[in-house]
Amino acid sequence: MTISNTPPSARGILLFAHGSRDARWREPVEAVARSVIAQDPTARVACAYLELVEPDLPTAAGALIAHGARSIRVVPLFLGMGKHVREDLPLLIEQLRTAHPAVDFSLAPAVGEAPEVIALLARMALKN
Amino acid sequence: MTISNTPPSARGILLFAHGSRDARWREPVEAVARSVIAQDPTARVACAYLELVEPDLPTAAGALIAHGARSIRVVPLFLGMGKHVREDLPLLIEQLRTAHPAVDFSLAPAVGEAPEVIALLARMALKN
To answer: What start and end residues bound the annotated signal peptide (chains A, B) (predicted)?
Structure first.
């Protein structure tokens, strides 16, 4: 049996959202980050944005790595499945892998693809 | 006791999303609409988009009204709380109320404001 020397906190979670000129746009993204910490106080989580809001993905990934992350799961907080998620994001992940070959990057499905998210949004639409 | 002549189906649900040039962008929106019907087969539901995808909000609302909807709940499928949700959408709702004074329009909170959505997205971010 091998016991890993890697602590659980060596895994980082990067919440990736679109961004907006509007300063309040990112409030729900930051709320998700707080909820991640509330559900798992050992989690290392950061937010990153495609455009118009800092930090971008390389900056946020670099910060997680500087704090010891050796694997990073990128979670696209996108409801719509457009070019940003299907084309831009995989390219960004490849650039991260090239820049940090020792770090294990994984790309989660966009949240809008998850059946449990779809079902919850439908339940909310049916509320009175 | 008053018994309403209005059938339950006189209530329409309008799922309102941003829109994108990308044809596949609306797939999750349409999946939410299908889930609404699956959860309540009597529901009348339509999708509408702020830009780049047809139909727009007035067109979709008009179709629901033409099919008998006498009240319409507009549900913003937006995660981020930007200008579109805080400023554009209330103006669009006012225009709908002016155009259809006999119809009762209500505006649900954006889904990104809902604690249960935030918590679910955090649980998904923590998945392996």
So the answer is: none
